[in-house]
Structures are given as C-alpha cells and as structure tokens.
Amino acid sequence: MPTFLSIDLGAGSGRVIAGSLVSGKIGLQEIHRFDNPGTDLPGGSFWDILGLFREIQEGLRLAASRFDDIVAIGIDTWGCDHGLLDAHGRLLGLPHQYRDPRHEGMPEKMHALMPEPELYRHTGITTNFYNSAVHLFAEKQLDSPALKNADRLLFIPDLIAYWLSGKMAVERTIASTSQLLDPATGEWSWKVIDAFGLPRRIFGKIVAPGTVLGPLREEVRRATGLGGVPVVASASHDTAAAVAGIPMEGGDQLWLSSGTWSIMGLETRQPIRSDAAFAARCCNELGVDGSVRFLKNIAGLWLIQECRRQWALEGADLGYAELVALADAAEPFRAFIDPDDPVFSAPGDMPGRIRDFCRRTSQCVPQSKGEVLRVATESLALKYRVVLDSFRQLSGKDFPRLHAGGGGIQNAALTQATADACGIEVLAGPVEATSCGNLIVQMIATGHLPDLAAGRRLIRGSFDFQTYQPRQSGDWEKALGRFRGILA
C-alpha cells in the first residue's frame, strides 16, 4: 500500500496527511494537526517556524508508526513569506508574517522606482501588501542586517524541505507569488530585482514542481523513525496544489479554491498581462505541468469565520452548521457589502463592521446574526459573479461550469449561492483539494502516475462530488445590479 505524506501548512494551522493508493483510489488519513499562531514581538509579527518544524517531525514520527511503505514527502504552504539564510545555511532570524506592518508605505516607494504598470508587465502580479517584493524592499529600506548578510532566500515550503532533506531549492509555484518572477519564463525577473536594489545572490535556482530533492537527513530519520524517504518539491504553493487537485477536464478552465481566502481563476497556458488584466487587479501565478493560474483573490470565508469568532467572544459559540441554518432563515437580498473593502481585512468585530458598511452605504442594516451572515454569504457569491464576468471579458470565453474545491465548499449555502449568482453549474469537490494536489504531484515524481491528467482522473474516482445547479436567476440578476452599485 504505497503511502505519500502531504505536509500542508496554512496561516492558522498545519496538518500532516497520509495518502495511500488502495484499489486504484486515494485514501486520506489525517495523521497530525497543529496550530500555527503568529507572534507579535517588538520587532514585528513573526511565524514560529521552529515550533512548526517540531510539529512536522512529530507528524512524520506518527506516520512512521502507522505505515510501512512511505514513498515520499511533499510540503505546501501559503505564499510569499520566506526566510533568509547565511552562507552556512543558518537561518537569519524568524520569518516575518505577511501582515507585518513593515509593508506600510513601501508600495509608493517601490512604484517611484518602477511604476506599477511596468512592474505588472514584468511579473504579472499587482502590488499587494503581502507580496514578497514589498517585504524584501522594506528590509532594504530598513538596512536589515539579515538581508545584508543573507546568501539565500527560501520560501517557507522551501525552508522546511531544506531542513528535512539538506537540499536548497526554490520551487517554481511558490516563487511565482513573490512579484519577483517572470511568469512567461518561470525564472527570476532580474530587471525588477535590480530596480529595487535587492541582492542577486540570494535568489537561487528555481526547480519545477515534482522535483525530487533528496532523502531525509540522518537527524530527521533518527527523530522520526523514517528511513531515507525522498522529499519532493511538490506544488509548494497551497493554491497551486489545490488547483492541481481539482479534477478539471476537457475544455474546463474555471476554478475556485474556497477557504479563508477565496481564489477564483483560470487555468491557462500563457500569462495574461494586458492593461485590462492589470486594471482588473488579476494576477498570474504558475501551476503544475507548465500551467498558469490567472486569478483574483477574494476575501472568502474570512468574513464568516470572523463573525463566528466575535460571537464566541460574546458567549455564543456556534458551529458552522448552525451559522448556515441562521443564514438560510434570514430574508434574502436586504443589503450587500464589498467583501474586499479594506475595512474587513483585519481581525476584529466583523458583525459590527458589516453593519457599519451597510449604514454608510444607506442600506438596510442587518441586526440578527442570521441577517449578518446572509449579507456576507450573498455578497461573496455576487463578488464571484463580478470576477467571473471580468474573466469572460479578458479571455473572450464563456464558462459553462465552475470547479470548486477546498474546505469552503462544505458551506452548502455559499456554494449554492455561488451557482445562483454566477448562473452556471458548480461542481464541488474535493474538500481536501490542496492535499490531493500535493499528493498526485509526488506520485508523478516517483513514477506512480504518468501525468497530471491521470492524477486528476484518480481524484475524480476517489471522492464524492456535489453538483449545484443555478436557480432564481431573475432575483440574482436584480441583486447583481444593486451590488455593482455598491462596488461603484
């Protein structure tokens, strides 16, 4: 029973998941789950990368005690964040979090050196507060000792892979989130790197997803009980892994990775870096098998998660099924918010912010928990529709189906609302799209699968999928007109 291990690190928690090939299907088993809390210190906001590595080793130890035939290990994480290492491979300080305030004021200084439209033509990425380029530029402006003494930059999954295998490499999908890579060549954009005064020496070799780095270090073998299991540079960006794990086929291109962040996009072969794509704030990141993920980030379930957290602080600890039921019972289309308004980006009193937004925009102000949730759910679905319409214009194509994967598809109310608002069929599954994508890239790398298409067929035959058909098109079209007015 060949077994592959997916180390999946999110911005709030991490997991080690085993994927075993059984009778022509993938069987998943969660081995170890752990928190990934950030820490605010006098020098900024940081990740506890050493604690994460200890938890990963514990997950590997538990896996070694349960499975006899572990074939490979792959890591995927959120994008952009990174560590800096010296010439001896030693980490120069804890990695900063992408929400670290050092980004403030940096985009304006960057754009004075290279205007954002030119930056977009080179990288296909719009400037966002979380981009690696912004944070490295901040390090440069702060005369950071870490940057001055750095010999190599490794993104978080690259760093974990290095500590596991002893081999340094930068995997292409994670590098493509940085705003420092040319999506057409898949290599560093030296014009951008030089324009921002970043040291060329830290930008090492880029490898394709599915590159076998090498076996586990001897120290890791002793700590975990595993043998010389190879570490694979899988689809190291979690969204790249999720898209690989969504079983699109034929002419299907439209996908949605639904979680704390919603990311909607097209799987294409060439980047789209037109003026219209820049105006729409769409980004080009790289995927598996030479693909490009042309995408748009949307707030996602963050809105609902933060509502739940606030109500728990107030003494009402509601499960997600209860939240869905409350939203279903509320009156539809009373008010809307822009999910991507900056006012909703930080933790805090999300129900209060939703009410304030509705008040500021002269709408009905939701009062009950169900009304607040209904506003958030319908607004997310309508934002998906707005993004879909922009994809239609930019690509010149129509899309009969949306493939949705990730934990967010378990919110049936939101998934149905997505089908209704977009007016197209939504095929939802798998929930574990990220781990599935990570696993099939490992299987291809080790010769257990021939290619991505075969991996997607394997996923399609291994899990249950739910189809949502659009309904109430007239009501949603009216709501769309009002929603566009709110955005304007």
Automatic annotation (TrEMBL):
It holds the Pfam family FGGY_N. Residues 4-244 form the Carbohydrate kinase FGGY N-terminal domain. Keywords: ATP-binding, Disulfide bond, Kinase, Nucleotide-binding, Rhamnose metabolism, Transferase. CDD domains: ASKHA_NBD_FGGY_RhaB-like. The gene is rhaB. It comes from Haloferula sargassicola. This is Rhamnulokinase. The keyword ATP-binding applies. Belongs to the FGGY kinase family. Gene3D superfamilies: 3.30.420.40. Residues 256-445 form the Carbohydrate kinase FGGY C-terminal domain.
